[in-house]
Write a structure and sequence with these properties.
Blueprint: H1 6-13, H2 19-31, H3 33-50, H4 68-92, H5 97-180
Helix pairs in contact: 2-3, 4-5
Amino acid sequence: MNHPTREELVEFLYGETPPDRTAAIAAHLENCPECRREVETWKAVRVELAAGARPERAGAPARRHSPVWFTLRRAAAAAMLVLAGYGAARLAQPGPAADADALRTAVAAELRTELRNELGRFATDQSGRQEAIVQALARMEAQRLEEYANLRRDMETVAVRAEDQFETTRRNLIRLASLDR
């Protein structure tokens, strides 16, 4: 059985397959559980990604992300670790309630500081990206203006040459007309 290539299956998944191959790949998927399972797995991953979930793969290296939800997840994880440490210390040495209130206040202040720092880094990343986009747009506008100026210059050159050619042709016709008389 001739299986479609991975590229063809991906094109089929995204609806980019040429019309003459679409029917052939669809028929193949009906008859080939291996290819069908692969395409269904890809579809599931697309659905998870569209929903904002991060599909986990065994043995896959951890990736760095900068979205706010990931930053908040890291801050929540840090809070959980601090609270777990607090709970373990509380169980090991029970102290007066005043110490617990002081510890809660300290933990809350530390969490706020860490969250502000993470959000500040995120805002800095975003402003850097916005600046890059503005610079790219400025370069594109400069290039567009330069191309417009070049096109205009070329059109004016063609117009002048055509005008000269018309004038030369007119003079030749007048000369021929005067010779015929």
